[in-house]
Specification:
This protein has 420 residues and is α+β, with helices and mostly antiparallel strands. Helices cover 45% and strands 10% of the residues. It starts with 5 loop residues before the first strand and ends with a helix.
């Protein structure tokens, strides 16, 4: 646009750097040179590529939500101060686009602002513990991290879907916001087959071993002096300096209350479910490649096998991603818990797909069970018990009224309990 704004139907990118008080020139998506080379080439020093990066990843995240939910994404409304001249209708205003600022702050941070309805990304000079990982003093831009962009975009989308999830009525609420955003970033990353091929070849198909895709925002974490990433829910470095997968601990759910750390429990549960499903999907490929022994021969995997494994991993990640997103429509509008989210995942998937040949639902149940996450109000931890009962309406309209009245009575009692 003529005002220097990169604007689309959902978002607008405003590249203003308050540190140097400068508006960077905006990339023109409609120019012939841009279209001829299929976009700008990756560059850490080109602000135009930074704008392209945040726009592309944010729109990819939006597309995944719309594909899973089957409807358009809407942003949360902006609350306004009461204006007596305009009356009560001015309490809130509709937001058609959120803003993205690729160079908003000069610090190691990135966040979604519910008040500004904006995603703000920072940049900073790196300070790695091991200089072999990264050159000290390198400028690190959070707007160049796929995982950070997807994470913050998910915060904005979830705010529009469930705006009361910003109110910490129990320890799981804010933790769910963080964990859910990490889940979307992680599995959106896993859904790209070409990205997976290198890691599958490196780990010989075992994605539970150390790999870049299991570490969110790795460069960001290295730059500020931490190994791997900020919230590595999959594994970490042990006392011997070796990476090892994180073993589930059922006590953590009762002991950890900090939102980011508690959210990592949810991430690890979903990631374990993914690994279980992935192993079931590639069991036949492993039998063929190992002549039935289950032990792959020494040396590199055949490129054809790598391609097949990457395809299965990508397909599984896309399924998990959509399962986790669809479940949002089955979650309570307030006071979300991890147990309620598990019920929502099982119910949403059961409503969409009747059969479950690869035991997706059982994989989720087992992963949550290992971490001591149980829903309340059920008799057993089975698919039938976890699935919310369907509401059947008879020809008598009074039955529907009774169902609604019963729900409202129970809901009112819960609200009163939390208020007390």
């Amino acid at each position: 646009y003529s005002d220097g704004t990169l604007r689309g139907e959902y978002i607008e990118v405003i590249d203003y750097d308050p540190t140097v008080e400068t508006f960077y020139e905006t990339v023109d998506f409609k120019s012939e040179s841009f279209l001829a080379q299929n976009g700008l080439s990756p560059s850490e020093s080109n602000p135009k590529f930074h704008q392209q990066m945040v726009y592309a990843v944010a729109m990819t995240t939006i597309k995944n939500f719309e594909r899973a939910l089957g409807r358009k994404v809407l942003w949360s409304t902006r609350k306004l101060e009461y204006d007596p001249e305009h009356g009560k209708d001015q309490y809130e205003e509709y937001i058609d686009r959120i803003r993205i600022y690729p160079h908003a702050i000069r610090e190691a941070n990135a966040y979604y602002s519910p008040q500004k309805k904006a995603l703000l990304f920072g940049y900073f000079h790196s300070n790695p513990i091991d200089q072999a990982d990264q050159m000290p003093g390198t400028l690190v831009y959070t707007c160049l991290s796929h995982d950070i962009i997807a994470h913050e975009t998910t915060h904005a989308i979830l705010d529009g879907l469930q705006r009361h999830y910003n109110h910490p009525t129990n320890p799981d609420v804010l933790a769910f916001h963080e964990g859910f955003a990490d889940i979307i970033a992680l599995f959106q990353h896993f859904s790209f087959p070409d990205v997976l091929k290198h890691q599958i070849a490196k780990t010989k198909g075992d994605l539970s071993r150390q790999n870049l895709l299991g570490e969110l925002a790795q460069q960001f974490g290295v730059a500020i002096g931490h190994y791997g990433n900020l919230r590595d829910a999959i594994g970490g470095i042990n006392e011997n300096g070796e990476w090892e997968p994180k073993m589930p601990n059922p006590n953590e759910y009762n002991e950890i209350m900090q939102p980011h750390a508690r959210g990592s429990i949810l991430v690890s549960a979903v990631f374990e479910a993914f690994l279980s499903i992935y192993q079931r999907r590639i069991a036949d490929l492993n039998r063929i490649a190992s002549n039935g022994t289950g032990i792959l021969p020494e040396g590199e995997l055949h490129p054809d096998l790598v391609n097949r494994l990457a395809s299965e991993a990508s397909k599984t990640a896309q399924h998990i991603l959509h399962m986790c997103i669809r479940a949002i429509d089955y979650c309570p509008p307030t006071d979300i818990t991890f147990g309620e989210y598990l019920r929502a995942i099982i119910t949403a998937d059961s409503d969409l797909v009747s059969s479950d040949p690869y035991a997706y639902r059982l994989a989720f149940i087992e992963a949550f069970k290992k971490r001591g996450i149980y829903p309340v109000g059920i008799n057993s931890l089975s698919v039938e018990s976890l699935r919310h009962p369907k509401i059947t309406v008879s020809e008598n309209p009074d039955s529907l009224i009774k169902i609604i009245a019963s729900f409202l009575r129970s809901y009112a009692n819960r609200i009163a309990y939390h208020s007390d």
